[in-house]
Design goal:
EC number: 3.1.21.10
Structural class: alpha/beta
Distance between the termini: 40 Å
CATH architecture: 2-Layer Sandwich
Number of domains: 1
Shape: globular
Largest sheet: 5 strands, mixed
CATH topology: Nucleotidyltransferase, domain 5
Oligomer: single chain
Catalytic activity: Endonucleolytic cleavage at a junction such as a reciprocal single-stranded crossover between two homologous DNA duplexes (Holliday junction)
GO molecular function: crossover junction DNA endonuclease activity; DNA binding; magnesium ion binding
Strand order of the largest sheet: 3-2-1-4-5
Protein name: Crossover junction endodeoxyribonuclease RuvC
CATH class: Alpha Beta
Low-confidence stretches: none
Strand content: 15-25%
Keywords: Cytoplasm, DNA damage, DNA recombination, DNA repair, DNA-binding, Endonuclease, Hydrolase, Magnesium, Metal-binding, Nuclease
């Protein structure tokens, strides 16, 4: 499975592509940051994020895009920018018919480090170790994007089994009512 992880942000939008399957060594195919100038107007910044994500989709052809789920932060301006960049990433994937998965920061931290309260340095260290890199990706947004991709690859098999079980249960329940 090839996953593009997106750590959304207006100033720095982390992007990273990881390939592999759960239980096997993973491979980093690319990592970087889409940057926009803080003094540019919002429309131009969102357009720059879109163009950057489109380049990553063109270059790496992921099967899925994993985006950090936006959560409430104390700074409303920050959360709005994050939500807008997140929406752009989802739109780019949807336009191409690529499935999108959302993961919360604590889900990603728990999957990669074992603790949902891990700090950025711990996440960066584990991403470095898991992908056998010589140094942690910089800035932290890039490491976070790789962590999102890793999280999805590891969690996807369990999520798929759960979705299948729910669908099977729903089908049986519906069939029982119509019989």
């Amino acid at each position: 499975m090839r996953v593009l992880g997106v750590d959304p942000g207006l100033t720095r939008c982390g992007v990273g592509v990881v390939e592999g399957v759960a239980g096997r060594p993973l491979t980093m195919l690319g990592v970087g940051v889409v940057r926009t100038p803080a003094d540019a107007d919002l429309g131009h910044r969102l357009l720059a994020v879109e163009q950057g994500i489109e380049r990553w989709l063109d270059e790496h052809r992921p099967e899925l895009v994993a985006v950090e789920r936006v959560f409430s932060q104390h700074n409303v301006r920050t959360v709005m920018g994050t939500a807008q960049a997140s929406a752009v990433a989802m739109l780019c994937a949807a336009r191409r018919g690529i499935p999108v998965a959302l993961h919360t920061p604590s889900e990603v931290k728990a999957a990669v480090t074992g603790s949902g309260r891990a700090d950025k340095a711990q996440v960066g260290a584990m991403v470095t170790r898991l992908l056998r890199l010589s140094a942690p990706p910089r800035p932290a947004d890039a490491a976070d994007a790789l962590a999102l991709a890793i999280c999805h690859i590891w969690r996807a098999p369990a999520q798929n089994r759960l979705q299948q079980a729910v669908a099977l249960h729903t089908a049986h329940a519906t069939k029982g009512r119509t019989a």
